[in-house]
Amino acid sequence: MEIHLLKSEMAVALLMGWLLLVDLFMPRIPKRYLARTAVVFLLGITGWLVWTGAGVGERWMEGVLVGGGGMFVLDGLALWGKEFAFWAALFAMVAGMRFAGKDDDHLVERVFLQLAACLGMMLLASASHFALVFVALELVTVVFYVLVASRRHDGLSVEAGVKYLIYGAMSSGVMLYGMALVYGATGSLGFAETARVAAQPTPPMLLKMGLLLMLAGLGFKLAAAPFHWWAPDVYEGAPTPVTAFLATLSKGAGFVLLVRMLTVAFGGMKEFWLPVIGVMAGLSLLFGSLGGISQTSLKRLMGYSSVAHTGFMLLGVAAVSCAGLGGVLYYLTGYLLANALVFGVMCETSGENPYQEIREYAGLGARSRWLAGALLIGLLSLSGIPPLAGFVAKLLMFKAAWQGGMTVLLGIALLAAVVSLYYYLNVIRHMYAGEPVLTDGLRVPYGVKLLQGALAAGVVAVGFFPGPWWDGSLMIVRALAGR
Amino acid sequence: MTAALFYIMGLAMLGFGVAVITSRNPVNSAMSLVLLLAAMSGLFVLLGAFFLAAVQVLVYAGAIMVVFLFVIMFLGPDEGVRRRLHWFGAINGLLVVVALLYAFFTLAGKQPPMIGAEGRAGTVESLGRLLFSKYLLPFEVASVLLLVAIVGAVVLARKDARSS
Amino acid sequence: MIFAEYLPAALQAGIALAFVAAMLIVPPIVAKKGAPNPAKDSAYECGLPAAQSGRPRFSIKFYLVAILFVLFDIEVVFLYPWAVVYKEMLREGLSILFSMLTFLAILFLGFLYVWKKGALDWK
Q: Which of the listed residues A170, A235, A473, C57 has the most CB atoms within 10 Å of its CB?
């Protein structure tokens, strides 16, 4: 077992253990300080990974480092996924601390669980064997079962937790059955061996069934229609920082796995999975955009929005080109930044507006220019207004779909973009032109301002100068497809 | 001998299965399920899947059924109301029966289209060897998964951690 | 498949079954049993009629115990194949020892957590 490949994973695991032990044996240390220390440590690990990753970037792009008997792969996509996991977890931890309040019993446990989900996605990004895929995916999902229900005195949170648990357990079972069928068809659970069988002129029926079942299970994690029914309820019921984490990390984890699985393991069966992904993309776009129109809660709206964004990203997957898949990675970058902005504002206002009613956002523009600005930039990027990151990302998806010759899907996507523009602009209209419910000013600490400023700058920078991000994504995907 | 044991186990499973769904006392249903699972582990032994048989008894007949029974006892083990057969359920059940019969008659006597693992795959030795060599990483991750589940269970179920 | 090696197990199962069957069948034959009547079945003079079912609801406190039992039970499942191959694989190096030690250390952390948080206390 090549332990040196697992350095960053082991660092996170050690951080988790350290956190738990200190919390248990030094109960005098305030939990807030402990949580903050964990954030600083995680930031350090992130910086270290980015630094070393950038240094040996080219080497990892070309050659692949393989460990654990071919289970664990360290390549560009893996590195990208790990960094995504770090940023998503960092943001969720900060948001969770802002949200928690002073007398929170389970703050350390929540940070611990968020680190565990981060670890799960890091492993998932490297997994090229279905056994590791399953364990890592469960690590992410089990954390969310707990986090979603963690406001135990709030009926909505518990309801969301139960719904997520039942749908999640079901989808894990479906996915596991799919893996069993893949094993039956190939005699192995490795991506490489699966690819060998999938490349045959007529792949066995069992393999097709296995892939279908796995796509259904993965569709749940991605909130892709027709497996998206849980998303609005769970997004609404979960505590706001958890919703943010769910929207970013579980989506990122799902797409990194989907990209690796479809290109590496099932690259030879494009004709088979292409229509499946296409249908999922079209349905997600329709349900996500049309379902959001009548929503009155911003959190629920974000649930539908995430379904629609899954649809856009699936469009890139369905294009089966390096441009499409690279576009997915670029899209995820912009999506993470914009979601962090929107949910960050939601965490700030959650005290006075626990159910995130859109009409209670009325007058936010006058109450806190800062928060309103952050929400504005986040929503505009999600709706795809130039020149923000969301615009370039959508453009890349449309272009990939056009080059792939998917006119019908492209039409649906354009329609969805217009419809979702309506509901995002509706929130902005309330914010600046609505009749205010509350008029007192909102105080925002400097740290939060700094973070939101950085995120907003990121959204603008990724949109204005897409070059570096786009080139990086393309390089990662080319290396993946070239193997 | 194998055939005789297969029929004994199979009939026992069928009998206990019927008892699970017809028994009016939920505790009796759960107990029948324990016996059904035990008989099923006997079938696994006949197939040479010894580890699976052990896990079946340890985890399913043991641990999972404890949770089942707990839920039954928590909700109150009173005898359930006898419900009428619902037409929707009946149709679905019939469909499943038809599908299973179809599968049985088309597949009977045919070699399954599976590529099995070679050698004595079901034995505990071969499983242990694989688990602690090739599958070491998922194995260690499984311990993190269990740890997370333990912490999660305490976070969700414990009343207030500090007031103790 | 050789069934001789299962003979002890079969024997034990048979004895257990026979014992339970005997417990159920023999007493009604041996014991004298008069015809039941309502007066006989009612509570004795100074007793009270049962206020509720003889099987009360369980407390929710059992829930955590049940879940923790399941989780640690799964740990034991992993120990079983380890114990079987341990002696043989030890010859190839110490990795078999350390892999299980890591596994157990991580789960011991969970046990410490449960213990220190007082989740096993019965208040």
A: A235
Considering CB atoms only, which of B124, B127, B154 is closest to C113? B154
CB A44 within 8 A of CB A15: no
| C12 inside 8 A of chain A by CB | no
Nearest one of A452, C48, A378, C1 to B6, comparing CA atoms:
C1
- On chain A, the residues whose CB falls within 8 A of the CB of C63 are none
In the DSSP assignment, the letter for residue C52 is: S
CA distance A451 to chain B (A): 29
Q: A171: domain range?
A: 3-482
* Residues 36-95, chain C, touching A (beta carbon < 8 A): 95
C32 touches chain A (CB under 8 A): no
d(CA B63, CA A52): 45
Q: Which of B59, B60, B143, B159 to mutate to test the interface with C (most CBs of C within 10 A)?
A: B143
Annotated domain spans of chain C: 4-34+58-116
Full-model pTM: 0.91
DSSP A80-133: HHHHHHHHHHHHHHHHHHHHH-SS-TTHHHHHHHHHHHHHHHHHHHHB-BHHHH
- The rounded distance, in Å, linking the Cα atoms of A448 and A454 is 10
pLDDT in tens, B95-140: 999 999 998 888 777 766 666 555 556 678 888 888 888 888 999 9
Which residues make Cβ contacts (< 8 Å) with residue A310, sequence separation at least 6? A222, A223, A224, A228, A251, A284, A288
The Cα A475–Cα A58 span in angstroms is 9
Strand, helix or coil at A189? coil
Cβ–Cβ under 8 Å, residues A186 and A194: yes
**Touching subunits for chain C (3+ Cβ pairs under 8 A):** A, B
Find which of B2, B51, B59, B70 to mutate to test the C interface (most C CBs within 10 Å of its CB). B70
A74 by DSSP, 3-state: which? strand
Q: What are phi and psi of A65, to 5 degrees?
A: -95, 125
Q: What is the pLDDT of residue A173?
A: 96
Residue A75 DSSP SS3: coil
DSSP 3-state of C35: coil
List the single residue in C with minimal CA-CA distance to B141: C103
Which residues, listed in sequence order, are joined to residue A297 by a DSSP beta bridge?
A357
Q: Tell me what the mean pLDDT of segment C41-66 comes to.
A: 73
Q: How far are the Cα atoms of A64, A297, A427 from residue A363, in angstroms, in the given order?
A: 53, 16, 11
Residue B57 is classified by DSSP as I
Q: How far apart are CA A80 and CA A91, in angstroms?
A: 17
- Mean pLDDT in order along chain A per 10 residues (483 residues): 79 95 90 90 90 57 60 86 94 87 78 96 93 96 94 88 94 95 88 90 89 95 91 93 94 95 90 93 95 92 95 92 90 95 90 82 85 93 91 93 91 94 92 81 85 93 88 85 69
B150 touches A: beta carbon within 8 Å:
no
For residue A65, what are the β-bridge partners? A74
Q: Which residue reads 């009796």 in tokens?
A: B28
Among the partner residues B48, B70, B78, nearest to C66 by beta-carbon distance:
B70
Q: Which residues of B touch C85 (CB under 8 A)?
A: 124-125, 128-129, 132
Residue A90: CA count within 13 A, CB half-sphere: 19
Selection from B154, B137, A142 nearest residue C111 by Cα? B154
Omega of the bond leading into A354 within 30 degrees of 0 (cis): no
CA atoms of B158 and B114, how far apart (whole Å): 46
CB C110 within 8 A of CB B146: yes
Domain total of chain A = 1
What is the number of other CB atoms lying within 10 angstroms of the CB of residue A399? Answer: 17
By CA distance, what is C114's nearest residue in B?
B154
